[in-house]
Amino acid sequence: MALVAAAALICISAGGASRSARAYSSGPPASHTGAPGESNCTACHSSSPVNYGFGSVSLGGLPGHYTPGQVINLTVKTHHPDGFLYGFQLTVLDANGAAAGSHIAIDQQNTQIISSMVGNQSRNYLEQTFDGAFPIEFDQRVWSFTWIAPAT
Question: How many other CB atoms are found less than 10 A from the CB of residue 152?
């Protein structure tokens, strides 16, 4: 089965760009991925466009196809040469904007799951915690999590 879920925008935030960057070091408010019906990172980080300058973000481990119920280990990696705090928010949706599969925060010290309603649909978001906002290596941060593919 081809992955029909749209991974919504993964927002990279390399702290230091604005005062508001410090305000959500424990994780951004829900519904800021840029997915349909949502705002994106620039709602709070208005001093720069999404993924500006020399920064980068990547989602690793996502297969081209999955089987129903498959457990998939994934990583989000952010990089910015001037970063001192890093953050992200991710949700996975199907073509109708409904949640597709489920996230498991396998490292609860560095990642967390929050929920919110968008329109009439409940969405779950994976994002960094306060501890997870600090780089583990100079100029980058990597978070690991598990995604369970939808049952159908």
Answer: 6
Look up residue 85 and give its DSSP letter.
S
Structure tokens at 111: 């990642």
Report the alpha-carbon distance of residue 140 to residue 56 in Å, rounded.
9
Q: pLDDT, tens digit, for every residue of 68-109? A: 999 999 999 988 888 888 888 999 998 888 899 999 999 999
Going from the first residue of the chain to its last (152 residues), give the mean pLDDT of each consecutive group of 10, the final group possibly shorter: 36 44 67 81 69 80 93 92 86 90 92 90 92 88 95 88
User: pTM of the full predicted structure?
Assistant: 0.79
Distance in angstroms (rounded) separating the CA atoms of residues 15 and 8 = 21
Q: How far is CA 46 from CA 29, 49, 50, 80, 122, in A?
A: 15, 7, 9, 17, 27
Q: What is the distance between the alpha carbons of residues 97 and 6, in angstroms, rounded to a whole number?
A: 9
C-alpha torsion angle, residues 73, 132, 111, 63 (rounded to 10): -20
Beta bridge partners of 113: 126
Give the strand pairing for 102-104 and 86-87.
unpaired
